[in-house]
Amino acid sequence: MKGVGYEYIDEDLMNFPKSSLLLEYNPVYKKCAPALWRSCRHAGTEREHAFEEACALLNVLEAELKDKQTGFFGGDTIGLVDIAGNFIGYWIGVIQKVAAVRLLTPDKFPLLCECSSDFQNFPIIKENLPPRERLFAFFKARFERKRKTFTPAA
Questions:
Q1: Does the bond joining 17 to the residue before it have cis omega, within 30 degrees of 0?
Q2: What is the pLDDT along the chain (154 residues), one digit of tens a residue?
Q3: pTM higher than 0.70 for the full model?
Q4: Which of 59, 61, 92, 101 has the fewest beta carbons under 10 Å from its own?
Q5: Quick one: how far is CA 1 from the chain centroid?
């Protein structure tokens, strides 16, 4: 975004372990994203537990928005928290579709869904979002690879 200084560091987000720099500057990555991934890719009681954990974390964000009088975490316009949480604003809808789960819904998280919509429709964001079809293909391939990894051979 215009006027926001940054240093670009290429990070391979597909492989573990994550870099110490990523974990230091993005502490949410240690909790929120893994809980969301587990709620989408596991089955049975493990999936239920991950789903509950992800919902609890989303409830924290929902509660934070209740205290705001505006549609973004940072106030009237998009701030650093909104940018850092962009996966909620765009990516999670695609992930939910690929994984056939309903985690972030307007009935459970009305303010977060509204914030997500506002984020996606903010002009500078809307102009720079990757096409949904590309994200869908990417996550579908990723879920298929993970499913093969976690499925025992017959």
A1: yes
A2: 556 666 666 666 555 556 666 556 554 545 555 566 666 666 778 778 888 888 888 888 888 888 777 777 777 778 877 877 767 768 888 888 888 888 889 999 998 888 888 888 888 888 888 888 998 998 888 888 877 775 555 5
A3: no
A4: 59
A5: 20
For 61, how many CA atoms within 13 A lie in the half-sphere containing its CB? 29
112: number of Cβ within 10 Å: 23
**Residue 104 is encoded by which pair of tokens?**
């972030």
83-110: buried (b, 16+ CB within 10 Å) or exposed (e) per residue?
A: bebbbbbbbbbbbbebbebebbeeeebe
Distances (CA, A) of 153 to 43, 140, 149: 17, 21, 9
- Residue 116, burial from CB neighbour count under 10 angstroms (0-12, 13-18, 19+): buried
